[in-house]
Amino acid sequence: MTEAWEPKEGEDTGANTPEVQEPATEEPATTPVETEDAPVEAEEAPEDNIQTKKTKESLKCQLSDKEILELGKQSARVGSAIRQKESELQAVKSQFKAELDKLVAERNELETKINAGWEFRTVDCEIIKDFRENILRVVRLDTFDTVRERTLTAEERQHNLI
Predict the structure, then answer these.
(1) How distant is the alpha carbon of residue 87 from its chain centre?
(2) DSSP output for 118-157
(3) Could you give the count of Cα atoms lying within 13 Å of 43 in the half-sphere of its Cβ?
(4) DSSP 50-68
(5) How far is the C-alpha of 90 from the C-alpha of 117, rounded, in Å?
(6) How does pLDDT run across 41-93, given as a tens digit for each residue?
């Protein structure tokens, strides 16, 4: 004969715990969890062939409307934080991309100079008008090489009288 279970004095009746829904066709998978606040002690029932002990198990529990609402709020906060971090990540990526592009351009310019073996620089020069030969020369003052040479124009052939 099976007797109805009656809680002992001080024993939790489960009235404050959520209802457990079990699948109709199979037993739920449970994992016993022993904790420090619930020491496991064997209790002898009046009959010698029955032994009981307290345990905690992770079981499927139906969420209340209040719990669902709170989880929804938490999900919205987490989603907002994710969007903020993604935005910050894009800003940082853009900044690093701009810095990287600047460095790549500088490297390309240096490689061009190296491959060509020369670069443009501002160099002090002197313009020489040779009226006897009717020639205008531009001469570098660092090497005294002639940069260019051309025939004087009619205006350039006129000497300043002042």
Answers:
(1) 9
(2) -------EEEEEETTTTEEEEEETTT--EEEEEEPPHHHH
(3) 10
(4) -EE---EE----PPPHHHH
(5) 40
(6) 555 556 778 999 999 999 999 999 999 999 999 999 999 999 999 999 999 99
End-to-end CA distance of the chain: 138
pLDDT of residue 22 exceeding 80, the answer is no
For 72, list phi and psi in degrees, rounded to 5.
Answer: -65, -40
Secondary structure of residue 35 in the 3-state scheme: strand
Q: Give the dihedral of Cα atoms 53, 55, 60, 61; nearest 10 deg.
A: 90
pLDDT at 24 over 50: no
Strands 135-140, 146-151: pairing kind: antiparallel
